[in-house]
Amino acid sequence: MKRILLLPLLALLTALGVSAQSDPRQPLVFGVAFYNLENLFDTINNNGKYDLEFSPQGSRQWNSEKYWSKINNLAYCISKMVTKNTPMGPAIIGVSEIENKSVLDDLVRAKDIKQWRLQVVHHDSPDRRGVDVGLLYNPRLFKVLDVTNHTLVIPDNPNFRTRDQMCVTGILGGDTLSVIVNHWPSRLGGQERSSYLREAAGELSKHIADSLWAIRPNQGVIVMGDLNDDPQDKSCAVELGAKRDQDKVEPHGFFNPWWRVLDKGIGTLAYKGQWNLFDQIIVSGTLLKHNHGLLQYSSCKVNNFDFLFDTEGQRQGYPKRTFASGAWLNGYSDHFPTIIFLHKARK
């Protein structure tokens, strides 16, 4: 596991004089989103057999036309994540299933969102398939101070490789916030047989959060990502300790608002007629109203816009993905994006 370099961050925060002072120029509500971009690969084969299918010579015949269509589709979806209280869209957008930084650079320059001038945080992970997590942010709303990346080590499986967990710490609404972006191990081989991998990932996220709180006990922490598990599964509910009810969450615990969303039958991806909610944004107790922080959680939403649904065939009513059964659908992703809203408490 990579050492968590947080002492330089503390010195930087002190030097900058970061405090909970309110800034009248800052908005009062902030969106924090997550979106699995479903195999956002460029057209160049840089990773041998794992990357061949996403090249013009591969089985998907992944060429410039398809690539730029996907970029524009994703940008259009992100552009719709505006609300009356967040007219510039989300302040922070975590992403997964991206090949490299260049695809994110292309995405933030796409016509539908280029006016936001989003910035990119990216790190190359050891994942064998060559996919990473990343973070997009609006520099007018969020100021990045520090980035650390943490490798998931499985002692009984030393050859295991997956996505690193990216921890981005910055200033949002005048307060310090850390966002841990994840793409936990898949259910390959079956949910139960692979559960121990996601349980280890949940434990790692909790360790990162505890290390942050050891330096700044009152700061907010968000764990987001495609967790490949639902809120009630052990990785989320036990190892991370994300609870269903806000009033049961201690300051250094976690609240999972998506538990009740899934109870209503709303999910972010569907498999064999069943909805799952893998794309979660989980908030620390320090971001809950009863703990009186400057930034406070207010609501969550699955951004299941009408245009993201497949309207025909066996996948009717499911997320409209880029490919299905080998055919190019010119879709978006096999996951719906999610968003939470934080509001700035009045002091």
Structure description:
One of its GO terms (molecular function) is exonuclease activity. With 347 residues, this protein is of the alpha+beta class. The protein has one domain: Endonuclease/exonuclease/phosphatase (Deoxyribonuclease I, Chain A, 4-Layer Sandwich), CATH 3.60.10.10. Helices cover 22% and strands 28% of the residues. Helix 5 links the parallel strand 7 and strand 8. Helix 3 crosses helix 4. It is globular, with a radius of gyration of 19 Å.
Number of helices: 7
Shape: globular
Fourth-tier CATH superfamily name: Endonuclease/exonuclease/phosphatase
Order of strands across the main sheet: 5-6-7-8-13-10-9
Topology:
Layout (H helix, E strand, L loop, with lengths): L6 H10 L12 E12 L8 H4 L11 H16 L12 E7 L2 H8 L10 E4 L9 E6 L4 E9 L14 E8 L2 E9 L7 H25 L4 E7 L7 H6 L2 E2 L10 E2 L2 H6 L5 E3 L2 E3 L2 E6 L10 E8 L20 E2 L2 E2 L9 E7 L3
Parallel strand pairs: 1-2, 7-8, 9-10
Antiparallel strand pairs: 1-17, 2-4, 3-4, 5-6, 6-7, 8-13, 10-13, 11-12, 14-17, 15-16
Put the structure in a nutshell.
With 347 residues, this protein is α+β, with helices and mostly antiparallel strands. The protein has seven helices and 17 strands. It has a single domain (28-310, 322-344), classed as Endonuclease/exonuclease/phosphatase (Deoxyribonuclease I, Chain A), CATH 3.60.10.
Comma- or semicolon-separated keywords:
single chain; globular; alpha+beta; 7 helices; exonuclease activity; Deoxyribonuclease I, Chain A; 22% helix; 347 residues; hydrolase; seven-stranded mixed β-sheet; disordered N terminus; six-stranded mixed β-sheet
